[in-house]
Write a structure and sequence with these properties.
The chain is α+β, with helices and mostly antiparallel strands. Helices cover 44% and strands 20% of the residues.
């Protein structure tokens, strides 16, 4: 429906006309536990909203936003409006506005199964019902009538009636309770997309944070079925460490009272920064043994969302063009906070190797965009929650800290909060304060880094004299936009014991196509030149031929974990760019990953090695490459320290890459106890990790999968079971999976994702070939009929990437040509998938040339 896709121009006009004084939202959620499903239509709840607002031009007209199956009544300034005349399914037309207005909307809103709006989840373990809301960027209108844009901030009062025995939370503290009804304190002025309600029989744990005179009540919650796994103490520990740090560096007290954190089921995102009521995906509660990298990931998300309380909630962008004003800062602050305040003091290593890989991919797609993006409407906004807005933005902020200095950066943030508290800002507001405190040219920096797209490649060129010493070290910069980079260039030499050790470092500004590092002249020839040592800037690192040759033999001998991670990242970029054969990358992983100390980097290498074989290797070598990976993984698994997180990581890698009958027999033996690897505890989550490849290769069937579900009859078990069932190598199974996702909307968002990931197995290319044509026949219908989140999941997830041939590119181009007028967001998704496939074909050609 066109009215659902609010445009930037419409939002700007409405913001010029209106100012909102406050909302009173009354929700009756008692229908959530009705045993009988409605005879027709979706299950609904009653939503009554009162909005008080002013209009700059009396007599003018505007609209309110609401997506609901039906509206009972609409009253504007005491006059009843006919819902059939003013409500079109997504907008309520409002004409003849007064200077001061009161709008009351009584509607029946639908519970969601897609993770958008008011999501309703029934726990298969005990039948309990759990609710939570998720709105970003514009799904609050699925729960209550509002003006759905970030710059029409207002205070909110929520009143919620809930079933007996439930608890209810919102952004504000509970002020009173009468029977089934809870009333919550009025919030500070906030945007619609960060209002929140969580309700159900959640397991709830409390604590308190104090700092001087400031006291913040803390809460953490999850489903009852996960309570035995919930390590709330660690969640509270990181929360308190984050508050300590942010209060110290921001010099602005947390402005939203209490701080609850809810871990909720079937969540589409990692987390959401609703003030006073942060929501997280419940997968951050670990049901089995995980590595410290998983705890680091969770801690990063906790600090990311906490940073949003200032960057995004206190001060909010006017429109989604400046989404980076909250997401880039929060992403940067997540890693910054980990290093400064928690036990995860190597977080910049993970950032360099893992997080930036997301940015590099996004920044080389045809849909790449500046960090400050052009966002014409809500559909475009939804797709810009991407690697550029998050990880590239965070990388550029790290460069900014190097450019203006740490204290100037933080002082700029402090002044920004004080100047714009509870308001909305644009890029210029931040640049002016940073320029004021640093004295640097922020306009030029912004043009280069925030307002242009693409990633630069920096390559060292070493020239030596007859004495073996350098006569010149230069750095070449490639890219459409040549940017100023503050970089550290590290020079490394091979010691007698085989270690690669840095013996010299130069921090300098790289600008233009060629920059000479003057202080390097006369130094001994390095065995390795590492441009962007210490990861100060955002770029792709390249190597001179000598450095690359040394890395092939000695990469694992680099002692500094960040330098090692940067080298791995650079080698992966070479592979993706078709400049290094995929089999060479696989060989490097097999030769050196066993010495990797940082388990987060090791996990990333495993994922990249599997991807290299599945997508970037020549088809004729795939089978051999898979066997080599599985054999290498098993070798390292047997060498790993018993009970260590490295052993667990190699076990998961071995399972994911298992390729031979012997591999499958070992996995089966580990499952039934007939085989054993000293120290390896095969807990429930690891059991599912072992079952998925067994199902995909036909080594187990439906009966074994169903028996495992009986062993783990939980929501998590159900997702694993659905994934394993869809992975089986059967034409009938694939047809069932396709129908469940494409021809029906009965599955929840979580089960849609599980079905798609199970269906798309790299070992089943031939079995999946017939779906390529069907994909292009259905995607426009899917986009029109489903919610945007499900549309994204289906269009991305079912693209025929595994049909990696020029014919698939031709089919994609034919669809794009024939559907030039399709929704821009849909075309963007198809273009991105096409680019991934074209990249894979180029990499395969490179690898074939190595044969």
């Amino acid at each position: 429906m066109p009215g659902e896709n609010l445009s930037r121009d419409e939002a700007r006009e409405r913001a010029e006309l209106l100012s909102v004084d406050g909302y009173e939202v009354v929700l009756d959620l008692r229908s959530a536990v009705d045993e009988a499903e409605p005879a027709a239509g979706p299950r609904t709840f009653r939503s009554v909203t009162t909005v008080r607002f002013r209009a700059a031009s009396p007599g003018s007209a505007t609209f309110a936003d609401l997506i609901a199956p039906s509206v009972n009544s609409v009253t504007l300034n005491g006059a009843a409006l006919d819902p059939a005349e003013v409500f079109d399914g997504s907008r309520i037309a409002l004409a003849g506005l007064a200077s001061e207005n009161v709008l009351v909307v009584d509607a029946n809103c639908a519970y969601s199964r897609t993770g958008e709006g008011m999501h309703r989840f029934v726990d298969p373990e005990d039948g309990e019902v759990y609710l939570y809301t998720q709105y970003e960027p514009a799904d609050a209108r699925r729960v209550y009538a509002n003006f759905e844009q970030p710059d029409l901030k207002a205070p909110y009062r929520f009143e919620v009636s809930a079933p007996e025995g439930w608890q209810v939370w919102s952004n504000g503290v509970e002020e009173s309770r009468e029977g089934p009804t809870r009333r919550f304190a009025e919030t500070a002025p906030i945007s619609t997309y960060i209002t929140c309600v969580v309700a159900g029989p959640y397991h709830y744990v409390t604590d308190t944070y104090t700092r001087g005179d400031l006291t913040i009540p803390l809460g953490a919650m999850c489903r009852k079925g996960l309570a035995k796994h919930f390590d709330a103490d660690d969640v509270f520990l990181v929360t308190k460490q984050g508050f300590d740090l942010f209060h110290e560096i921001f010099d602005y007290p947390y402005p939203f009272g209490k701080y609850d954190q809810a871990f909720v089921p079937e969540y589409n995102l990692g987390a959401m920064e609703n003030p006073g009521m942060v929501t997280f995906r419940e997968e951050y509660i670990y049901r089995g043994k995980v590595t410290q990298a998983s705890y680091e990931r969770r801690a990063n998300v906790i600090l990311h969302e906490m940073a949003h309380m200032w960057f995004g909630d206190l001060v909010t962008m006017k429109w989604w063009d400046d989404l980076w004003l909250k997401e880039s800062f929060a992403d940067f602050m997540g890693s910054f906070g980990l290093v400064e305040a928690t036990r995860f003091d190597q977080a910049w290593v993970t950032f360099a190797n893992n997080r930036k890989a997301w940015a590099y991919r996004a920044d080389q797609l045809p849909s790449t965009h500046p960090i400050t993006a052009d966002i014409p409407d809500l559909e475009a906004a939804k797709l810009n929650f991407d690697g550029i807005t998050y990880a590239k933005g965070a990388s550029v902020l790290k460069q900014l800290v190097a450019y203006v200095g740490r204290e100037a950066f933080l002082e700029g943030a402090r002044r920004y909060f004080k100047a714009h508290a509870y308001g909305n800002t644009t890029l210029d507001d931040l640049l002016s304060v940073l320029g004021e405190v640093s004295g640097r040219d922020m306009a030029g920096w912004s043009r280069a880094w925030l307002q242009t797209a693409g990633v630069n490649a920096l390559t060292p060129v070493v020239t030596c004299g007859a004495d073996g010493r350098m006569t010149e070290l230069a750095v070449l910069q490639e890219g459409d936009e040549l940017r100023p980079h503050r970089v550290a260039v590290g020079l490394y030499r091979l010691e007698a014991d085989g270690a690669l050790v840095r013996y010299a470092r130069s921090e300098t500004d790289v600008a233009g196509a060629r920059t000479v590092i003057a202080e390097a002249a006369g130094l001994e020839r390095p065995d390795l030149v590492l441009v962007n040592d210490e990861d100060l800037t955002y770029c792709k690192i390249r190597f001179d031929e000598g450095s690359l040759a040394v890395l092939r033999g000695h990469l694992g001998s680099i002692g500094d974990p960040l330098a090692r991670a940067l080298c791995w990242s650079a080698l992966w970029n070479l592979t993706r760019d078709g400049l290094m054969p995929a089999r060479d990358f696989v060989s490097l992983v097999l030769a050196h990953a066993g010495r990797e100390s940082e388990v987060g980097v090791l996990q990333q290498l495993h994922a990249q090695a599997l991807s290299a074989v599945a997508h970037y290797a020549a088809p004729s070598w795939r089978e051999q490459g898979g066997r080599e990976l599985a054999a290498g993984a098993l070798h390292e698994l047997r060498l790993a320290e018993p009970g260590s997180e490295h052993q667990l990581t190699w076990a998961r890698f071995f399972a994911a890459g298992s390729a031979t009958e012997g591999d499958f027999q070992l996995l089966l033996g580990l499952l039934d106890g007939s085989a054993r690897i000293d120290g390896l505890d095969v807990d429930q989550e690891l059991r599912w990790d072992f079952l998925l490849p067994l199902a995909a290769h036909g080594a187990v069937g439906e009966a074994v999968i169903e028996a495992e579900l009986a062993r783990d009859d939980t929501a998590s078990g159900k997702r694993h079971q659905v994934r394993c069932l869809a992975a089986r190598p059967s034409a009938a199974v694939k047809d069932q999976a396709w129908a469940a996702v494409v021809e029906s909307d009965a599955l929840s968002n979580a089960l849609v994702e599980a079905t798609i990931s199970g269906m798309q197995q790299p070992s089943q290319r031939a079995l999946l070939a017939g779906y390529a044509g069907r994909y292009f026949e259905v995607i426009e219908r899917i986009w029109a009929e489903r919610s945007i989140q499900i549309g994204i999941d289906v269009v991305r997830g079912l693209y025929p990437t595994l049909q990696d041939s020029p014919a698939t590119l031709e089919a994609t181009d034919a669809w794009l040509t024939a559907h030039a007028d399709a929704a821009p967001a849909l075309r963007r998704l198809v273009l991105e998938s096409r680019d991934d496939l074209a990249r894979a074909l180029r990499a395969q050609a490179c690898d074939a040339g190595r044969a």
